[in-house]
Amino acid sequence: MKLSNYSKIFKALSNEQRLNIFMMVYKQCCVPKGGKESSCCPGGGSVRGAFTKTCGCMDLSKSTISHHFKELQNAGLITCEREGQTFRCRINEEAVDSIKKFFE
Amino acid sequence: MKLSNYSKIFKALSNEQRLNIFMMVYKQCCVPKGGKESSCCPGGGSVRGAFTKTCGCMDLSKSTISHHFKELQNAGLITCEREGQTFRCRINEEAVDSIKKFFE
DNA sequence: TCTATTATTCGATAACATTCGAACTATATA
DNA sequence: TATATAGTTCGAATGTTATCGAATAATAGA
Q1: Per-residue pLDDT for A104 more than 90?
Q2: Residue A24: how many CB atoms within 10 A of its CB?
Q3: Which residue range is the domain that position A60 belongs to?
Q4: What contacts A36, CB < 8 A, 6 or more positions away?
Q5: For testing the chain B interface, which of A3, A4, A14 should be mutated: the one with the most B CBs within 10 Å?
Q6: pLDDT cut 90: percent of chain A above it
Q7: Helix (DSSP H) and strand (DSSP E) numbers for chain A
Q8: What angle, 0 to 180 degrees and rounded to 10, lies between the N-to-C axes of helices B3-12 and B93-102?
């Protein structure tokens, strides 16, 4: 992976609000081994209605939150797929693995 | 470690030039186990004349490079100590460990 | 097809980042 | 003490990012 891709990833995580969004998705996607699945993640590994949830618990306008989701997607950190009126979000494990490798 | 500290670290690494500087220090500080020490790192773990070296291999003005070193220090990623006319740089292992933990 | 809900796009604005060159400070050495 | 080398600070130009509200588009359901 090129250095410029890494800097893109770090840029996406450099804004505190956006990092917060990333973390909410990240935590909910990581069903601990042997642990219970959370209600938002049937099947584990993805978050239903991530955007709506985020709007509900962050003090930012919808448009700003939409922008932050786009940035996280552009950096390759998450993927989102439409599911009716809302979106289902998933962490891109590859990106996370790349970061881990970066610091080895 | 607070989320805002993480975003500071990621911000420091979000600029490609700065990431480049960080990597040069990082690589030179990490003497592989059983490997030879590099000439810049007698004793291992630190880089002698890091600023001067960086100036020599990056297409940026001294003042800009100085600024980037400051940013890396402010984020707690590296420390620099004067050594005569030049500086000796060291990676802050704690910061790196924090990032690793962040993605566990 | 009408309406409510959900999310995106647009245009504006304010704040912040990157970069430079010039002037300056710190240190070593002749 | 004069000079060379190394690095910092300052002010300015330029570019990028975060944020909002309003207008718009997509979807579900009545």
Answers
A1: no
A2: 18
A3: 3-102
A4: none
A5: A14
A6: 79
A7: 5, 3
A8: 110
Taking one residue from A and the other from B, the number of pairs with CB-CB distance under 8 angstroms is: 48
Name the minimum distance, in Å, from the CA of B14 to any CA of chain A.
4
Q: Which two tokens mark A88? A: 């289902």
Does residue A9 surpass a pLDDT of 90? yes
| Residues A102/B4/B5/B7 CA torsion (nearest 10 deg) | 30
Count of domains in chain B? 1
Helices A3-12 and A62-74, axial angle in degrees (round to 10): 160
* Residue pLDDT, tens place only, A17-68: 999 999 999 988 765 555 555 555 555 689 999 999 999 999 999 999 999 9
Q: How confident is the model at residue B34 (pLDDT cuts 50, 70, 90)?
A: low
Q: What is the pLDDT of residue B45?
A: 81
CATH number of the domain where residue A91 is located: 1.10.10.10
List protein-proximal bases of chain D (any atom < 7 A from a CB): 5-11, 17-23, 26-28
CB of A15 within 8 Å of any CB in chain B? Answer: yes
